[in-house]
Amino acid sequence: MAVPVVVHMVHRRRIREVHWGANRLLVELIRNNRRRLFIDQWLLLAIRCLAVFMVAMALTRPAFMPKYDSVGAGALDRKGRVAAVILFDDSASTGAGRGISSLDKMKKLAVAYIDSLDKGDEVSVILLSQMDLLQSDPLLDLDAARSLVGNIKGTSIASDVPSLLEHGLEQLHRHLIPRGEIVLVTDGFVGGWMPELKERWQSIRSRLAESKFSGNNEFSPKFIVLQPEDDSTVSNLSVSRIEINRLVVPANKNVSIIAEIRHRGPMVAHNMWVQLEIDGRVVEARPFVIEPGETRDAAFSHTFAKAGSHSIRVIINGAHDVFPQDDSRSLSFQVHDKIPVLLVDGSYGDSKRKGLEFLDLALAPYRDGRDLFSITRTAFSELSQFRLYDYRVIILGDVEGMGSESLAELEKFVVAGGGLLVGLGPKSDRELINRFWARGGDGFLPCSLSDKREKKSGFRIGSVNPSYPALSFLKNNATVGSDCSILTYYSLDTSLVNTGELSTLLSLHNGDPLLVARKRGMGMCVLSTTSLDLAWNDFPLTPYYVAIYRGIVSYLASDILPPRNLTPGSPISYISSSELLQAEGPDGLAVPLMQGAWQGRRAYRSPVIYDVGLYRIQELTSDSTVYFSYNIPAIESKLEPMPDKMIESLVGSAGYSRLRGEDAVREAFNPDERKPVEFWDKLVLAGILLLFIETVVSRVQSADLPDHENAQENTP
Fold first, then answer.
1. Minimal CB count within 10 Å: which of 76, 82, 114, 715?
2. Residues linked to residue 340 through DSSP beta bridges, in sequence order
3. Which residues, 6+ apart, have CB-to-CB distance to 352 below 8 Å?
């Protein structure tokens, strides 16, 4: 840099001052041009300095790393060995695609990433379908990691990105190398990210931002998302839901079957049929028309002549979409001849009170064998004589304190999936109920009792919750129970119950609940804060009493347990006293059954099942068949790309990199592909150009000088 300065100063000293007669005539002109000459001289100096600087920089051979199509691309730079945890989302939606599935593309992405690792790097591969299994130690053999990825097969389970990331962060602590990379290989669809789980994502953000070793923030793990390139023409038809218009299905009565069909994407479906199968036999098929982006119902009706286990399957024929796995959906359910209900009446045998007689008549009015509900009525003192598992629903009406043995059996009944309806009354002891039945929110009762409230003129029913399945038939009735009078009831203490766990079915005008429900274990308990008879109200005398309590008891009895409508990734559980059982899958192949337990009861269990379809267990001694239905979770059919802004909001300051396609992965990671871009030749050209500019500027400045100045410079 000093060279052009020295040359410039030497050049200035070569100009010698010569005095001659006419010089005085030029003094005034030189004084006027002094400012312009000063600027010209400094401009020439700057050009000369910059030219020398360009040549000097070119000698250092500077280079830069190119940026890639990712967020936080600078985070991809590696310095030393790497501990890589590959999280592979092998959920149901990865089976989507035309010609080649997203799963196959994802496997190639994972292999491309492994190819970027060097000898000595550690790698772990965690599959979504196997993340709950005991994870193995990190691999140093990259060929073994490639083989593991190559053998991945698709499943039908639901995506769960938060759980996958949590398992990946746990696995990272098993690595010895401090520099970690959490690599999520996904199909890029929005299903499974669960942005509504704010607390879990807050924890994940904190763990991604913190260092692996305390106090060493340099080694915080990098979060990288690998996905196939986006396909803007994704179109998918799916059977998203099947339901029956009855909570319990009786034999020899016509029922309506509703299948919800969804069309996502721009492609138009032609020549499409919707087919209904009952117990594996086609009973109806009809043409079906649906527009892109539309959701429509396909309605069928059927009468089941025989009680027992049955199945429904609705199939879309001719969809020709990218995700054929969700073109069908099945439902397993029980057709009932009788539903056993046990009424435990605190006033049983009391001639002054009718007790649960009103409820008995509401559930079984005919008394000639035609009733769906089979009622057994007893006093609470005799409860210990009954085997509770023989009943689908148990109703407690104004029951006093209960023995510890009966209390324990009742709680087991509810937790194992039984339905329980509890009504209060004059014999109810608030302290005992709160201490043994509610137990601060941990007992079988939905919540604790608060104060008893009484009013001679009575309280009125204010509102009904028609969104609750047991009361869905009341959605068009706003005057339920407006003509009845609630004289006495207990207010509730819900402070120890988590928000969202307690559902209010009926409320009074003052806002206090009259009927509440809460799931307890696998079962459900409904609590009436007033009596189920005439002791505290005249509700049994109104026409809605029968409909409401039949709906509640039907809802409590609707679940068949162990569950028969399952999601992939769970086993079949079946309770039977028979030892001659045979199970088979939708492909006709045998499914092994092993003796085990379910909710403390002896049961047969299958291995974990990942494939969708109808599975059957046949009891050879009775020749009865029980159906189990596995369906793809509905969220997996929503093949919408995950936007970058949503991921940014989830990971926050922890940052992430998102690479789409194999080429992007190779460019971002492979040393052979990810070469620095040198630009020394461009600096040399810039220096030459500046020297040319310097020559031109010098000539222009010389040409602009007056003749007498040129003469001075040329004077010896």
1. 715
2. 374
3. none
Cα of 453 vs its chain's centroid, Å:
44
DSSP character for 325?
Answer: G
Q: Give the three-class secondary structure for 511.
A: coil
**Predicted TM-score (pTM) of this structure:** 0.74
pLDDT in tens, 682-692: 888 888 888 88
Intrachain domains 70-232+641-673 and 339-558 with the same fold: yes
Size of the chain, expressed as the number of residues it contains: 716
SS3 label, residue 656? coil
* The CATH homologous superfamily of the domain defined by 236-336: Immunoglobulins (2.60.40.10)
Amino acid at 706: P
Q: Residue 151 burial (CB < 10 Å; 0-12/13-18/19+)?
A: exposed
Query: Of the ranges 50-64, 160-174, 261-275, 596-610, which is most confident?
Result: 160-174
Give the class (CATH, top level) of 339-558: alpha beta
What pLDDT does residue 164 have? 95
pLDDT single digits (tens) 655-683: 888 999 888 888 887 655 455 567 778 88
Q: Which whole-number Å values give the CA distances from 379 to 140, 388, 615, in the listed order?
A: 69, 14, 42
* SS (HEC) of 87-133: EECCCHHHHCCCCCCHHHHHHHHHHHHHHCCCCCCEEEEEEHHHCCC
CA distances from 716 to 26, 173, 280, 698 (A): 20, 84, 116, 21
Closest to 390 in 3D by CA, of 546, 553, 551, 575? 575
Residue 701's pLDDT is 67
Q: For residues 602 and 595, is the Cβ–Cβ distance under 8 A?
A: yes
Torsions phi, psi for 445 (to 5 deg)? -75, 145
Question: Mean pLDDT across the chain, nearest whole number?
Answer: 85
- Give the mean model confidence (pLDDT) for residues 344-352: 76
What is the C-alpha to C-alpha distance for residues 332 and 313, in angstroms, rounded to an integer?
9
Classify burial at 62, counting beta carbons within 10 Å of its beta carbon; exposed 0-12, middle 13-18, buried 19 or more.
Answer: middle
- CA 255, CA 257: separation in Å to the nearest integer? 7
The alpha helices in 439-496, defined as continuous H runs, are none
Running DSSP on this structure, what letter comes out for residue 228? Answer: P
CB distance 57 to 683 below 8 Å = yes
What would the two tokens of residue 482 be? 């407006």
Please state the domain extents for the chain: 2-62+679-710, 70-232+641-673, 236-336, 339-558, 565-627
**H-run or E-run covering 315:** strand 308-317
Residues 382-415 pLDDT 10s:
888 899 989 999 999 998 877 788 888 999 899 8
